[in-house]
């Protein structure tokens, strides 16, 4: 069936209603007079409230009359009893804790063998130099070590030696923030 070239079906028209015997009613909706009356009352009440509030600020405030110092009579203040002595606390741990010294035994950090981080191993020295330049742009210093093994010559890009693994991890995270992933931390040989 060819949907693109087919004809549209004819429109159906609803049957006409007869108007015989029915009086024509206006098509305007009826105004809800109760809602209009309620809105007018609310607006009027709000206006009255605002005028009542603003009228209070305009009322004159009573002025204090200054009495000359000769006519003022000293007021006798009743003698207050001094405060009673503060009761002694029944607890003695406050003094004990203030004078106590806490001794903590912190073991020395064991440093393992030095660490090195290898970020790449390449057959071509130019590739190793390119990676070394990328590492230098991130603010770290790296070296290229050339090794001749049973499977050919390799150029390794390494960083280190590091005293602890934490120092090596810090530099590795710095390299990862610069989009250089895949660096491995190994013990120094």
TrEMBL record:
| InterPro entries membership | Cell_div_SPOR-domain, SPOR-like_dom, SPOR-like_sf
* All residue ranges annotated as the SPOR domain in the record: 109-189
Low complexity bias: start-end ranges: 68-79
Pfam families, per this entry? SPOR (PF05036)
Say which domain of life the source belongs to: Bacteria
Give the compositionally biased regions (Basic residues): 1-20
Asked if the Swiss-Prot or TrEMBL record annotates the protein with the keyword Glycoprotein, the reply is no
Asked if the keyword Thylakoid belongs to this entry, the reply reads no
Q: Name one GO biological process term.
A: cell division
Ranges that cross the membrane = 30-50
Q: Name one GO molecular function term.
A: peptidoglycan binding
Query: What are the boundaries of the region Disordered?
Result: 1-26, 57-87
**Keywords, ordered alphabetically:** Cell cycle, Cell division, Membrane, Transmembrane, Transmembrane helix
**What is this protein identified as?**
Cell division protein FtsN
């Amino acid at each position: 069936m060819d949907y693109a070239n087919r004809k549209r079906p004819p429109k159906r028209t609803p049957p006409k209603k007869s108007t015989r015997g029915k009086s024509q009613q206006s098509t305007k909706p009826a105004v809800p007079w109760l809602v209009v009356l309620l809105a007018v009352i609310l607006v009027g009440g709000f206006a009255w409230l605002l005028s009542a509030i603003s009228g209070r600020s305009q009322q004159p405030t009573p002025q204090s009359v200054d009495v000359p110092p000769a006519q003022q009579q000293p007021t006798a203040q009743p003698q207050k009893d001094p405060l009673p002595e503060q009761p002694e606390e029944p607890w003695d741990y406050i003094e004990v804790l203030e004078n106590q010294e806490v001794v903590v035994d912190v073991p020395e950090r064991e440093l393992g063998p030095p660490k090195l981080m290898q970020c790449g191993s390449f057959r071509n020295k130019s590739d190793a130099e390119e990676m070394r330049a990328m590492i230098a742009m991130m603010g770290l210093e790296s070296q290229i070590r050339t090794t001749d093994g049973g499977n050919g010559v390799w150029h390794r890009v390494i960083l280190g030696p590091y005293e602890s693994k934490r120092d090596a991890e810090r530099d590795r995270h710095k390299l990862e923030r610069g989009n250089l992933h895949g660096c491995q931390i190994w013990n120094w040989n």
